[in-house]
């Protein structure tokens, strides 16, 4: 059982990496965050289409990754 969950965790981690790599860059990164540049809070532009799908996929895969990691820690 543990081996199967470890294999699934490996596949999920690869999918998270792929989903993050395919996302488009939306800003200046950490430097713009520190400097306070860009939109904040409710004024951020909503992503549509492909970017929105990748954002949702990344969130779902991240939650599954964390949950699966906790399950593996519990059944140790």
Report on the architecture of this protein:
The protein has a domain of 51 residues. Helix 1 runs antiparallel to helix 3. The chain is mainly α and 76 residues long. The chain is built from 3 helices and no strands.
List the defining traits of the structure above:
76 residues, elongated, mainly alpha
Helix content: 55-70%
Which parts are unreliable, with pLDDT below 50 for 5 consecutive residues or more? none
Mean pLDDT figure: 83
Encode the helix/strand succession as letters: HHH
Shape: elongated
**CA-atom Rg in angstroms:** 16 Å
- The chain-level structural class is mainly alpha
Total strands: 0
Instruction: Please give the largest β-sheet.
Output: none
Quick overview:
This protein is mainly alpha-helical and 76 residues long. Helices cover 68% and strands 0% of the residues.
Explain the layout of strands and helices.
Blueprint: H1 2-22, H2 30-35, H3 50-74
């Amino acid at each position: 059982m543990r081996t199967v969950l470890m294999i699934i965790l490996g596949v999920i981690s690869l999918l998270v990496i792929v989903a993050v790599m395919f996302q488009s860059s939306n800003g200046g990164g950490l430097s713009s965050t520190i400097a306070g540049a860009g939109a904040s809070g409710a004024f951020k532009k909503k992503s549509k289409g492909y970017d929105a799908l990748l954002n949702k996929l990344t969130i779902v895969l991240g939650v599954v990754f964390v949950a699966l990691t906790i399950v593996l820690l519990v059944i140790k």
